[in-house]
Amino acid sequence: MRNWEVRLAHYYGRDHVPLPYRVGADWWKSEFAHIRSDDDLEGLIAVADQWAAHPERFLPLPLGEIACTVDSGGLIRFPSRGHTDEERNRTVYMAYRPVGKGCPMVLAVPAWNAERWRLRTPLPTAKQCGFGGASISLPYQDERLPEKWTYAQALISSDLGRTMRSMQQCVLDTMDAVSVLTQLGHKRIILAGFSVGSAIINILDLLDPRPLGVICVLCGDDFARCVMDGISTRHVRRSIEGRIDRSQLDRVWRPLSASTYVPRLGRVPRALRAMLTTHYDFTFPTETGRRLRAQFEKHGVKHEWKEMFCGHYTLSYPPFSLRFLAWFRAKLKQAAALPDGPARP
């Protein structure tokens, strides 16, 4: 299984060249006067500490309606509230496939380098359960990918401050996607995140009470540990290693870690909170998922957990993909049966 996972990680990451290592504190200069220079590591850590203590200041819910357009092909566009220097990245794109007016929706948040169309497999399953489907493009994905870039290299990179900005933008864009769907009449929304999409939803879970439930597929407790120990981010690790102490990196990327928010999740009840990890995950190492599960149990956060006997990439291949879809369908049918959920199809 490990050999299969390594081959797939190499295939999907064959063109991944890392950005040069940078502290990247300049990405936060406009908001924090205490940052003295581009490489002010202590200044960036201070920003991270404030974010972890008061995430609602960094990730506020949108105020008022969001201007959006829906074309005849079911593609929604709306402006991003995130901080970016790439013009293409200032617009969010969301595929929109309702099954009826005001129907319940599954909003899918993709993996790091998974194009929006790759979510075509779970979304038909949502339709079978009476849910419409929507999937967003994360920063630097699909139409948001700058010219001459081969992948979303700035979403997770060795530019520490930029990675923080990118993940902040991911969460804000997902919040706004929930708002857009609500504006279109969809009041019952399930968030489904995959890989880094699950990390995004784990942050949003604390801050946005509107979704009926969350489903996190392939998740871990510590962002820095997943980047530095995972096989899919080896190119990022090579750029970072020897430049910063691991304990410092943990502090810088602490607000991007699910474990930062778990102690406060108990105050945000969800009709459904389901997590899935895999036994042979070398991208979000298996122990990071198990530690996250232990934290949910320690802090009394109501949830459901499933561990499948495959890996991060092999989850997409038969027979594991079929088992995953059966689990995913069961979770949606469970949501459909809830008092606030849709009627059974």
SSE layout:
Layout: H1 2-12, H2 41-53, H3 55-58, E1 69-70, E2 75-79, E3 91-97, E4 105-109, H4 122-128, E5 132-136, H5 160-183, E6 189-194, H6 196-207, E7 213-217, H7 223-229, H8 234-240, H9 246-252, H10 262-265, E8 272-278, H11 286-298, E9 304-308, H12 320-336
Helix pairs in contact: 4-12, 5-6
Which labels suit this protein?
globular; disordered C terminus; 12 helices; 37% helix; 345 residues; alpha/beta; Rossmann fold
Strand order of the largest sheet: 1-2-3-5-4-6-7-8-9
The helicity comes to 25-40%
Helix-strand string: HHHEEEEHEHEHEHHHHEHEH
The beta-strand count equals: 9
Do you know the CATH topology? Rossmann fold
User: Based on CA inertia axes, which overall geometry fits?
Assistant: globular
Can you tell me about this structure?
The protein is an alpha/beta fold and 345 residues long. The chain has a single domain (2-336), classed as Rossmann fold (3-Layer(aba) Sandwich), CATH 3.40.50. It is built from twelve helices and nine strands. It has helices spanning 2-12, 41-53, 55-58, 122-128, 160-183, 196-207, 223-229, 234-240, 246-252, 262-265, 286-298, 320-336, and strands at 69-70, 75-79, 91-97, 105-109, 132-136, 189-194, 213-217, 272-278, 304-308. Strands 1-2-3-5-4-6-7-8-9 form a nine-stranded mixed β-sheet, sandwiched between helices. Helix 4 (122-128) packs parallel to helix 12. The two termini are 37 Å apart. The relative contact order is 0.15. Mean pLDDT is 93; it is low at 341-345.
